[in-house]
Amino acid sequence: MSWNLKERLQKIVAAEQGTLAFAPGSRHPMALVYPNTYHVGMSNLGLHIMYEQINSRGDTACERLFLPDKKTMDEYIRTNTPLLTLENQLPLYEFPLIAFAVSFEMDYFNLLTMLKTGKVPVKAADRGEGDPLVIIGGPCATFNPEPLADFVDVCIIGEGEEVIQDFLDSYYDSQRRGLSRNELLLRLAQIEGIYVPRFYQPVYGSDGIIQCYERHLKVPDRVSRRYVKDLGRYPGQTVIITSDTEFKDMYLIEVARGCGRHCRFCMAGYCFRNPRVRSLSQIAEGVEKAKLLRAKVGLMGAAISDYPEIDKLCQMILNQGLTMSVASLRADSLTPVLVESLAASGHKTITLAPEAGSERMRKVINKQISDEHIYQAIAAAVTAGIPHVRLYIMVGLPGETTQDIEAIVEMAKNSKKHMEALGSRGTLTLSINPFIPKPFTPFQWLPMASIAEVSARLKYIQSALKPIKGIEALVEQPKEAYIQSVLARGDRRLGEVLSTAMNGGGQKGWKQALKIHKVDEDFYLYRSRNDDEVLPWHNLSMGFAPEYLLSEYRQSQAEEYTPPCVTGCKRCGVCQ
Q1: Which of 34, 103, 107, 394 is nearest to 268 (CA)?
Q2: Where are the alpha helices (DSSP H) in 301-450?
Q3: Is residue 257 domain-shared with residue 342, that is, in the same domain?
Q4: What is the CA radius of gyration of the chain?
Q5: What is the pTM of this model?
Q6: How far is CA 34 from the centre of its chain?
Q7: Which of 127, 207, 349, 446 is 20 to 30 A distant from 57 in Cα terms?
Q8: CATH number of the domain residue 274 falls in
């Protein structure tokens, strides 16, 4: 055991405000693990919410654990020290329950590494009666946990606030009854929102496509996503304040959850329906806490500018003598009060997400924003004193043509001209990413655009904009996006690839692991799926009517808009 490592963890905890620590043995222990660094993990509001929910029970002590940086990980390995939790510096393998919050596909490599370094059997099949139960939750667990199925015992499908309470109640009762591991898992599988992969075994055809799943007779045909009907029942705010996050000492408050805008590329928009908002009074309680901590307020949600009382909220924050920031904005719902509040809070950049350059392409993806909306948003920002503009763009979208790529360049040029005409000398930044088809979206059946094609289009945009002063094009390297794409729509056969890649340096060992196991990534990347194909995520249900996603895909082909969710709408089937 390295005392140096324990001391480092103690210093991290000492620098925090709001840590919930309990003496070892006073409660049942549970580890909450984020498979990335402390800096990234503590920026995740969902982690704070689950940390508070678990610790609020009174019978469970939830301790956090994050991926160490390279230097620290080297010391863990050199000293043969198992990964240690923050609160009490306990070894990971000592926790009977280990829950990973998984938000990004590229963290799958880290998850396996952390199990191994934590001295927990990596494969679920290798864990016996005395070994920990490994759980995953978060967006990746919700839309397709299959690539991780060989390594986890339980997947939480949907939002965790209510599921985790039912899970822990059932787990502790099963412990008192002396149930075996398999009996426990079978009992947990009866809880709405819990998927136990071992009870659903895929059967593959000679073409590599899943023919069916062989299901245990005592588990549901499909596991339904669980979601919180009333956000007011659960606080959605920062629990632990620390300066070592993406948001520094910001106090995060969830304003809304889900999105009813129906952007056809967006997994979050489909997997977190229906759209819900918190009351202004509940948010006000969070603002009061932020004031006590003298912290900046960070408003979180899919589209903050869509919040019905956004102007009142902004004025309330500023009237308290606080400043604010927002997670996301829509160009078509910005208000002068919101923009002026951001300017008064010291914002120098306004971020918008048109996603595509042409209005035709925006119809395909159901991004209901016009060029005029963008120009109006820029004008509002410049008028308020915000000089810089950032635009999020995707390339490789379904049906994208050369003209659509040229439209990105023209949109950038026109936006910059618009800024200059208003007297702004600020920078226009384009953040450009390859489009990745995701499960439970209308594009889930489509192939990804080839890496050669996407690379050429990215290069064209960069070269076309490079000569123009005041425009910067930031491009995500396609290589990582294509690994993400394989994992996003992957099946259980990728487990052995991930395991081998982990031992070969993680992401660096990906290509070699594919070769070793003779797995063709083109099968996952470039193949069109039939609309009746059994997809890897077949065992899960987001609550949609059977034909809904297919009808949305047909709408996209016809370049037709789908209107936003409204109260009483029954269109997709979630709100029956």
Answers
A1: 103
A2: 310-319, 336-344, 359-364, 371-384, 402-421
A3: yes
A4: 24
A5: 0.97
A6: 12
A7: 127
A8: 3.80.30.20
* Residues 268 and 210 both lie in one domain: no
| Residues 277 and 405 placed together within one structural domain of the fold | yes
Helices (H) and strands (E) in the chain, counts: 21, 19
480: domain range?
Answer: 250-489+544-557
254 and 200 housed in the same domain: no
Does residue 460 sit within a domain? yes
Compute the C-alpha angle 521/523/529, nearest 5°: 145
* Number of neighbours of residue 217 by Cβ within 10 angstroms: 5
Quick check: helix, strand or coil at residue 195? strand
Question: Cβ contacts of residue 67 below 8 Å, gap of 6+?
Answer: 34, 35, 36, 37, 41, 73, 110, 113, 114
The enclosing domain of 180 has a CATH number of: 3.40.50.280
Host H or E run for residue 109: helix 108-117
Q: Are residues 470 and 344 in the same domain?
A: yes
Same domain assignment for residues 254 and 208? no
Tens digits of pLDDT across the chain (576 residues): 788 999 999 999 999 999 999 999 999 999 999 999 999 999 999 999 999 999 999 999 999 999 999 999 999 999 999 999 999 999 999 999 999 999 999 999 999 999 999 999 999 999 999 999 999 999 999 999 999 999 999 999 999 999 999 999 999 999 999 999 999 999 999 999 999 999 999 999 999 999 999 999 999 999 999 999 999 999 999 999 999 998 887 999 999 999 999 999 999 999 998 999 999 999 999 999 999 988 899 999 988 999 999 999 999 999 999 999 997 799 999 999 999 999 999 999 999 999 999 999 999 999 999 999 999 999 999 999 999 999 999 999 999 999 999 999 999 999 999 999 999 999 999 999 999 999 999 999 999 999 999 999 999 999 999 999 999 999 988 999 999 999 999 999 999 999 999 999 999 999 999 999 999 999 999 999 999 999 999 999 999 998 999 999 999 999 999 999 988 888 899 987
Count of C-beta atoms within a 10 Å radius of residue 126? 11
The gap from C-alpha 257 to its chain's centroid, in whole angstroms, comes to 13
Q: Which bin fits 568, alpha (ψ -120 to 50), beta or left (φ > 0)?
A: left
How many other C-beta atoms lie within 10 A of the C-beta of residue 504?
15
Gap between the terminal Cα atoms of the chain? 55
Whether 416 is covered by a domain: the verdict is yes
Count of domains for the chain:
2
Looking at the fold, whether 212 and 255 belong to one and the same domain comes out as no
Both tokens of 419, joined, read 């800024």
